[in-house]
């Protein structure tokens, strides 16, 4: 093993794994530092619902072998209604998916150091030149990428991304067997991914059931510590309490049991990113998170951020001067806004509005979706102000005003 690389990547999640995969395929010396042990990876970090769509599968050549179930439909639920649309997708076995990324990168020469907890950057002349891990161990590189998610020790130390952590998203997921996927009064969730907007179950967030085949499903709850959560939360309830409350009151779980060992927890911070790069450094993946208002698509965002980081590093390192200055790596910021999260401000504003709406408004939204063309929903989810405006009702003006007031004050 050498101590000097072209690129060091902290974190072996989808973003870091994809960046390593692309850079190794291009012949660069890449080292990935991962906190978990090789034998256990990924256990503590196996936290994603892992639902994605064909565009992601095709764009990154994700193999069928890591798919638990190919789905045909997406279902949106509110407390009293559901909306069913044909939208093919895939529910991944997240552990297999992450290990596939490791295998792909290693096959092209990337080195993975497991049991390597990154603590801080190694600085020289005011610039990052390497990473310190496991106390006093150090490795060096021309470019360092922080893909460690919410912890982001390198990004914090370098004061990149404006990580003020205002709105934390907290999620928990279990896998169940013995599910009833189509009881009377509910939509059929066979071969479907379902997202539910219901403050009684997930105040300021959403819950989900992703069919994984047979009578099994991934089931979870996520909420953001936002105004919607503060207004609707049950006193003393934890994220575990909400999931238990749901499973005890919903007939789909009447005969269901948790599958042992299939418990996943995670967190992220939903905020507008500021600068995401500086001299010799980029922050990618959950370090600068954004989600689609409805579909989420966290895996796709992470993979795309890893890909544009690799493209940026490739551009800088093939320069005759190997120019890894802040001005050169700022290409990553540009590509992120163009290809990873276009119209991010519009989409995050819509997300804020969505989670402030009442359960009664969620019911009306789903009633409206039955008469609106799919194209309008897709456009709104993609950040189109006009499409969003067309879906508003008079009663939404107060939500629009309060969201705008908080948005601009922050």
TrEMBL record:
Keywords: FAD, Flavoprotein, Lipid biosynthesis, Lipid metabolism, Oxidoreductase, Phospholipid biosynthesis, Phospholipid metabolism. GO terms for biological process: phospholipid biosynthetic process. Pfam families: FAD_oxidored, GGR_cat. The keyword Oxidoreductase applies. This is Digeranylgeranylglycerophospholipid reductase catalytic domain-containing protein. GO terms for molecular function: oxidoreductase activity. Residues 191-244 form the Digeranylgeranylglycerophospholipid reductase catalytic domain. NCBIfam families: Dggglyphlred_Halo.
């Amino acid at each position: 093993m050498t101590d000097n690389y072209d690129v060091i990547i902290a974190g072996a999640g989808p973003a870091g794994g994809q960046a390593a995969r692309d850079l190794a395929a291009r012949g660069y010396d890449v080292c990935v530092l991962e906190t978990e042990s090789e034998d256990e990876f990924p256990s503590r970090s196996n936290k994603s619902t892992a639902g994605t769509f064909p565009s992601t599968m095709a764009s990154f050549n994700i193999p069928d072998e890591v798919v638990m179930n190919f789905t045909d439909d997406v279902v949106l639920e509110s407390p009293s209604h559901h909306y069913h649309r044909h939208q093919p997708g895939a529910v991944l076995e997240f552990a297999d998916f992450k290990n596939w990324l490791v295998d792909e990168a290693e096959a092209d020469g990337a080195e993975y150091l497991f049991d390597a907890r990154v603590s801080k950057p190694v600085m020289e002349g005011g610039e990052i030149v390497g990473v310190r891990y496991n106390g006093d161990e150090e490795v060096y590189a021309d470019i360092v990428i922080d893909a460690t998610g919410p912890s982001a020790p390198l990004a914090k130390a370098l004061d990149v991304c404006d990580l003020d952590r205002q709105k934390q998203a907290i999620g928990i997921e279990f896998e169940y067997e013995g599910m009833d996927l189509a009881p009377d009064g509910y939509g059929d969730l066979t071969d479907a991914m379902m997202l539910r907007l219901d403050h009684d179950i997930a105040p300021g967030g959403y819950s989900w059931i992703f069919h994984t085949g047979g009578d099994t499903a991934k089931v979870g709850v996520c909420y953001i510590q936002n105004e919607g959560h503060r207004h609707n939360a049950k006193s003393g309830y934890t994220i575990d309490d909400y999931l238990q409350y749901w499973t005890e009151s919903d007939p789909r779980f009447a005969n269901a049991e948790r599958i042992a060992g299939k418990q996943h927890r995670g967190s992220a911070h939903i905020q507008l990113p500021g600068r995401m790069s500086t001299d010799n450094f980029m922050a990618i993946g959950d370090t600068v998170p954004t989600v689609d208002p409805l579909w989420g698509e966290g895996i796709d965002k992470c993979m795309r951020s890893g890909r544009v980081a690799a493209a940026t590093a490739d551009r800088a390192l093939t320069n005759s001067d190997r120019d890894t200055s802040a001005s050169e790596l700022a290409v990553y910021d540009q590509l992120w806004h163009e290809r990873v999260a276009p119209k991010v401000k519009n989409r995050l504003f819509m997300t804020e509005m969505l989670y402030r709406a009442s359960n009664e408004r969620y019911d009306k939204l789903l009633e409206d979706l039955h008469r609106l063309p799919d194209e309008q929903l897709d456009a709104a989810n993609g950040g189109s102000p006009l499409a969003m405006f067309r879906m508003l009702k008079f009663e939404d003006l107060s939500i629009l005003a309060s969201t705008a007031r908080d948005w601009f004050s922050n």
